[in-house]
Structure formats: C-alpha cells, structure tokens
Design a protein that fits this description.
single chain; about 425 residues; alpha+beta; 4-stranded antiparallel β-sheet; about 35% helix; about 20% strand
Length: about 425
Amino acid sequence: EGREFKIALQRASAQKFRGLCTLSFTDVTEEEASIRDLEHKRPVVALLQIDNYDELVANLSGYDRTFLLANIESKINSWADKSTAIMVRGDRNRYTLLFEEGYLDAYRAERFELLDAVREIKNPEGMSATLSMGLGCQGRTYNENVVNARLALDMALSRGGGIGVHRAPFMWAGDQQRLFQKLDDHVFAMLNAGVSGMPFMTYDMSGYHYSRPVATPYAVLNRKTGAIDLSRTAAQGPDEAVVHRLFSGEVSLDEEQRIFARGTEFTAYSACMQTHGYVRHPFEFDEATRKTYVAYAARHRALAPEILAASRKAAQKGIPVVRPLVWDYQDDENTWNIEDEYLFCDRYLVAPVLTDVTARDIYLPQGAWKDLTTGERHVVPAGGKRFRLDVPIDRIPVFAREPSLADGVAESS
C-alpha cells in the first residue's frame, strides 16, 4: 500500500512457448517521488509592473511617492508570502518574484485579488494604481522562464490611451454592448487602429454587456453563494461577486445566439480571439451555436502560423494584421469607402456579417480569389467585381488571394 510500480508485459518469442508471457513489477516509488519533488522545486518567475507609474507619481512629493510605492509593495509582499519566495524590486515600477512551481496554483488562485488590492490604492488626485503580471514556468532554464514571463506580461491589454499607446501590444476596444448594431464598432475600431499605428487590436467577442432600460430587473448568479438573485436592477449595477446570466428587454436568447455566432466568425480572422464579460459564454448557448464557436475557434488556432508571421511583419514594418482594402488597393477607387470588409494577414479577404441578415453584398478587387467555403474561384479584372452571396448563420464569406498575386502587394503598398 502506498507504493508505485512500473508494469511490463513480455510475450515469449519461441514457438514452443507461444502464448506464454511474463509480467514484471518494478518498484518506482522513490523514483517517482524524486521526480515530483524536482517538479515541485522548479523555479517560476513572476514579473510585476505598475502600468501607470509615471502618471501616478507625476505631481507627488518625495514623501508621497515613497508612501504610495510602499503601500503597493506591501500588497505585493502579502501576495508573495505564500512561500519562501524571493522578491527583488527593479527600476522604479518593476518587481521580480522567484518561487517554486509547487506553489504556482496558490499564486494563480489569488492573482486577481492582488490586482484588485493594488487598484484600490490611489494617489492624492484619485488616480488608481494598476498592476500587470506575467508568469513564466516550465522552461528548461531560469532564463527561459524569464523570457516566458516577459511574453506573458507583454500580452497585457491596454484600455484607451493617447500618444505612445502604440507601445502596448494589444489595444482593447472597451465595454461594447451585445447588439447587432455594435458589431460593426469592433471592425471599425480594428481598421482605424491599424492605420493609426496600432496594428494589434482586440475586443470582447460579440460584446461585453447587455443593453437594457436603467430600471429593468435582471437575474444574476452570485459566484460566492451559487444563488440566483432576482432583486437587483441595472441601476444598481454588477460587482465582482455577480455575473449576468439572464436578462429581459431588447434582445431575445435566439437573437443573442445569432449575434454571438456572427461575432465569433469574424473574430476568428483577427489577431486575438477572446470572449469576456457579463454575458452568456459559449457553453451556455444551444448546440448549433456551440458548434459554430468550436469550428471557428479551431480555425483561429489553425491560422496561428500565418498570424505570427503577419504580427512579426507588423512589428517590423508597421503593416497591420487587419487592414482596410484600400491599404493594398489604393488605385481602386471602389475600395476607398468600404468599411465592412477587410484584409487579414497577407492572404485573406474577410466580409463579416454585421447585421441580422442571410445574404450580403461582396466586393472583390482585381486578382484571383478562392471562396474558402465553396471552393469557387473568382478571376477579377481591373475595376473589381460585385455580387451578392448567401450567408447562413454558420458561414462568413472569406476569400483567399492567390499566392502568385498576393506576393509583394502589401510591401509595395
């Protein structure tokens, strides 16, 4: 009892012993315990950064600055006290935490509590401190974990901003309503951010919250108790303990499922695909909507190599991953005012369905294009081609540009 064994089965090869076999048991208890111990002690690197440090301390005296940073550091120290972690403060707004992997789950479980605690700290002007965190683990060396932590930290989202915001890896579009008329806001934001020097744009897929009259009651699920609360109203607003599950008002469940499906389809053809907010999530919809989500999530993962290549080009040359047609076809006047189609990576033309319809108009600029759903090939002369296309709820029109024609187009533009 309490021992671990490795079991091996070996059949006899000699003809006269055919059908006989030997079963051996090797006690590997100590070996497995050593492996678990080594895994428990593998180093994990956590990088923490005060995002708005410069704005936070801009007008503070030396005393006030020291007091504010000490307050933030005390919150980080409280979070770090789950193990014998080593914490080092870097230049101004950065902290490095080194701890054993066996404590990783404990740190992860309370990371949002730390972020919330730091956010409650304000400077005399009322500005809240914000903290970003990146965890690096399972690298072969300490340096690999540092790199992994930096990559995780770099994925932090930036909400809004002014001059210099292009330095943030992903600009986030903010809290959008889950309505058909808001889907085009996502596309509009992506295209405008891309041509404004911010090639990486993301948003809460298909909307973050519902739209309803202020006093309309809505049902919420209390995360702490598991109970449904029917007494709250939109005027009271949600807090961190609740999440919207049911609602009444402008949008029916059936319509919401169509909104979610349409948002999922074009978000699969973007640099970042994520769903979030006080709304229903994929597993809460009907089977057809779930299948649409699974199919397009798989398609997004399959596009990862092309997204990575396009992202590298964006970082090096400023060519947006998602860009308007006019970027590549500046001599085609028909593309100048098209806002409901876009180019993705260097190969795809995407025509998202942004309203509750089952057919939409398509414009293809000059070139050879292949419909990825039907396989139909369109050879388009100068001046482009317009046509109407059926778009059932599980389909988004996407056309692949022929490589021979696509090579160098974005570069020359």
